[in-house]
Amino acid sequence: MKQTINTSNAPAAIGPYSQAIAYGHLLFTSGQIPLSITTGEVVSGGIATQTEQALKNLQGVLEAGGASFSSVIKTTCFLTDMADFAAFNEVYASFFGDAVPARSCVAVKALPKGVLVEIEAIAIRS
Q: How many whole angstroms separate alpha carbon 98 and alpha carbon 89?
């Protein structure tokens, strides 16, 4: 049965979507962008700061859905500039450690609110 996941440990959805949907043992998250949980505004700084915030937001959604970074099996990452790829990877790796999931990383023309990065995940729930 499908279950909607919502948490105050990540920014509220800014459109007609859920933060995540759980279906059986799987959790499908919506893309997380670097919005401050407290202000709802885009965090200032470059790709490293924005990637860190997007991943913190993703962590909040994962935990609310009964998952964690170690249970993520696939991510899709969107960057507005592939010149940021190395800096993005450095921060991304610090959150996943040795439990790196399958991943797609693509460049896009633009993202909501003018952010530099968006990250979504599929995870196995505990």
A: 13
Instruction: Give the model confidence (pLDDT) of 12-66 as tens digits.
Output: 988 999 999 999 999 999 999 999 999 999 999 999 999 999 999 999 999 999 9
The predicted-structure confidence for 97-121, as pLDDT tens digits, reads as follows 998 999 999 999 999 999 999 999 9
Please say if 105 is a catalytic residue.
Answer: yes
Question: Can you say whether the dihedral through the CA atoms of 70, 76, 78, 81 is positive or negative?
Answer: positive
Domain extent at residue 112: 2-124
Could you tell me the pTM of the whole model? 0.97
The CATH number of whichever domain residue 63 belongs to comes to 3.30.1330.40
Structure tokens at 115: 């952010």
- 48, 105, 111, 124: which is the annotated catalytic residue? 105
Domain count, the chain: 1
DSSP string, 34-52: -B-TTT-SBPPS-HHHHHH
Distance CA 124, CA 109 (A): 31
